Amino acid sequence: MEHDYDYLIIGGGMAGDAAARAIRDAEPAARIGLVGAEGDPPYKRPPLSKGLWKGDETPASIDLDTAAHATLHLGRRVRRLDRAARRAGDDRGDGYRYRRLLLATGATPRRLPFDGDGRVIHFRTLADYRRLRDQAVAGTHVAVVGGGFIGSELAAALCGAGCRVSLVFPGASIGSGRYPSALAAFLDDYYRARGVEVLAGAKVVDGRAGEAGVELTLSDGRRLPVDTVVAGLGVTPDLALAEQAGLVVGDGVEVDAQLRTSDPAIWAAGDLAAFFNPALGRRLRVEHEDAAVGMGAHAGRCMAGAEEAYATLPYFYSDLFDLGYEAVGLLDARLQTVEDWSEPHRKGVVYYLDAGRVRGVLLWNVWGQVDAARALIAEPGPFVADALRGRIPHDG
Ligand SMILES: NC(=O)c1ccc[n+]([C@@H]2O[C@H](COP(=O)([O-])OP(=O)(O)OC[C@H]3O[C@@H](n4cnc5c(N)ncnc54)[C@H](O)[C@@H]3O)[C@@H](O)[C@H]2O)c1
Asked: What keywords are annotated for this sequence in UniProt (predicted)?
């Protein structure tokens, strides 16, 4: 079947949804189509590793109701893009003509080199959440592989669901690489005190399914028999379509300030788009909800004729048991860090500096200071490390 749209959105994540809304606002009569690979309509992704486990959200409450703004074509992957004909073709033989196109295909989880007879869940989607929820009943022993965002959030969530949790990752500590080392070490202790077996410094290299579950082999030779395995090993941007279509691609699909790709009829937003951030002075690809929603909406407005420049700094947040934080800019522990604790590792601010400029701010159980952090990163400096302490108050 052939479809004809003014605006075609490829990708059914939060960026795609936000773009559909923005286009609908700007052009109420527009014909908008959205093709998504998942069977579920677009939904809020953060609750998959947070609110759905605490009962703050349900699968129904995270639905974004995108169908109110666009015609949805779900469970389909666009495989071919013919830029000259302005036509996309999906894996079920349908074709979509467009006037303007948004690429919002996101990213794909990295995979372990085995699948334990289909028992390993590489966690990314609502379908993955449903599978894990079915398997991770109270008392189940779950191996959580990866100590980044998904690993740290899911380990806490699964503990809350009454599971026995072993958290395995190659780094020195949970979130090392992002947090200063003392904070990362504090987190290891925090997780251990709540019953999580923290297995730092080890990769998972093999896994064999048995009758009862999966036996993992770690890089240090240890064996870990568990009932279920869930992995968060990072993601790689989904660039195949952009590459096939001959768009300019580096670390991601390269876009200009209006989020337009090297083809003037095609925009890109979300995990796969590499944009230049003026405050940080570099091209970035950001894999967080705030960027997906903000860039999706921005691209939608620009597709409908706006000429605004996208200059938003990365923002993200996380919940780890009863700890929580917000962060702005670059959280890279290789930068110089300045720690300012009012209560060590419970409440404080960490500043990340590079050549006298603030590049990132971690607001650890400090709320209401995101705008102050953004303003600080926009200041040219130079900053002296000690002068930063107290710069952002700990109580809003
Ligand atoms: N709060 C948030 O903003 C949030 C929450 C969840 C997910 N996300 C996003 O989802 C994406 C995926 O998250 P993620 O946690 O998978 O990525 P991540 O990059 O945060 O963490 C990847 C982890 O996997 C580990 N790892 C890699 N290979 C391994 C192996 N063989 N064995 C054991 N560990 C291994 C790494 O050392 C690291 O600890 C990211 O883009 C992230 O930004 C964000």
From this structure: Apoptosis, FAD, Flavoprotein, NAD, Oxidoreductase, Transit peptide
Can you tell me which atom of ligand 1 is nearest the CA of 318?
A: 1
203 CB less than 6 Å from ligand 1?
A: yes
Answer whether 148 contacts ligand 1 (Cβ < 6 A).
Answer: yes
Which of 44, 125, 169, 315 for mutating ligand 1's site (highest number of atoms within 8 Å of CB)? 169
Does residue 209 register a pLDDT over 80?
yes
| 179, burial (CB in 10 Å: exposed 0-12, middle 13-18, buried 19+) | buried
Any atom of ligand 1 within 6 Å of the Cβ of 287:
yes
Q: Which residues pair with 224 in a beta bridge?
A: 216
153 within 8 A of 49, measured Cβ to Cβ: yes
Give the span between the Cα atoms of 121 and 119, in whole angstroms.
Answer: 6
For the chain, residues classed under CATH 3.50.50.60 are 2-108+235-303, 116-231
Summary mean pLDDT of the chain:
96
Whole-number Å distance, alpha carbon 175 to ligand 1 midpoint, is: 9
CA pair distance 266, 19, nearest whole angstrom: 13
**Best CATH choice for the domain 2-108+235-303 from the list 3.40.50.2000, 3.90.650.10, 3.30.450.40, 3.50.50.60:** 3.50.50.60
Task: Check residue 260 and report its DSSP letter.
Answer: B
Whether 396 shows a pLDDT value over 80: the answer reads no
Residue 128 CA to chain centroid, in angstroms?
Answer: 15
Residue among 150, 153, 271 whose CB has most ligand 1 atoms within 8 A, to mutate: 150
Residue type, 82: D
Note the pLDDT tens digit of each residue in 139-154: 999 999 999 999 999 9
Positive/negative CA dihedral, 46, 50, 56, 60: positive
**Beta-strand (E) ranges in 47-202?**
71-74, 78-82, 87-90, 95-97, 100-103, 107-109, 120-122, 141-145, 164-169, 197-200
Q: What is the pTM of this model?
A: 0.96
294 Cβ below 6 A of ligand 1: no
